[in-house]
């Protein structure tokens, strides 16, 4: 019997597919939530009615990172899981525009849910943080990608100190696209998504491909491939390249 999602739901209306994280109180992730998120992205990719995909979360925080309270749950035994690097590539290269709507904290590995999205809209109280170095950990795949989103100086400041980067600071430097009042974030994101969903799908796809190809020429694809090599694994087929 197919797995019925518990913490991630997918809905579509008005040309927009919406993926919602809903695991109170902090949307912390484990293998089960991660699997359900992968399934939701795949559903959005297949959905012919969804021209734009939005990732959002309910509650105070977008995602507080990995679940650490002992209630971790595994994905179904028969689940076909992607590696971290394959998941990044799949979402980044989906042939549809993607928008992440972030409120409150987006912490640690939760940032890799957001990074591959084409646009990032934030509430005014949103912040990003990667505390792994501060607690003696080794950064995951999101660590080298900080450089692309924040630039090398700010990426090092964030990683070395474990400090919060407020969305307002990132907005000022162009690392996030828009700031909204907290109670308006989801509606303003949805309104923008509906607007661009009216555009020609082929034109949107080609515009996205042009930008992504330029980033690959600049070396972004190397990060994913090199991370896979360091983890002694081979990248799987790129399922989502437009």
Give a brief rundown of this model.
By secondary structure, this protein is an alpha/beta fold.
What general outline do the C-alpha atoms trace?
Answer: globular
Number of DSSP-assigned strands: 9
Q: Count of helices?
A: 9
Distance between the termini: 32 Å
**Radius of gyration, rounded?**
17 Å
Class from helix and strand fractions: alpha/beta
- Quickly name the level 1 CATH class: Alpha Beta
- Spans where pLDDT lies below 50 across 5 or more residues: 233-242
Task: Note down, in words, how this protein is organized.
This protein is α/β, with parallel strands linked by helices and 242 residues long. The chain has one domain (8-230): Alpha-Beta Complex (2-enoyl-CoA Hydratase, Chain A, domain 1), CATH 3.90.226. Helices cover 39% and strands 17% of the residues. It has nine helices and nine strands. α2 packs antiparallel against α9 and α4 (142-150) crosses α5 (152-161). The protein is globular and about 45 Å long. The model is unreliable at 233-242 (pLDDT under 50).
Task: State the main characteristics.
242 residues; alpha/beta; 2-enoyl-CoA Hydratase, Chain A, domain 1; 39% helix
Tell me the layout of helices and strands.
Layout: E1 8-13, E2 16-21, H1 31-46, E3 52-57, H2 84-92, E4 98-102, E5 105-107, H3 111-114, E6 119-123, E7 127-129, H4 142-150, H5 152-161, E8 164-166, H6 167-172, E9 178-180, H7 185-196, H8 201-217, H9 220-230
Parallel strand pairs: 2-3, 3-4, 4-6, 5-7, 6-9
Antiparallel strand pairs: 1-2, 7-8
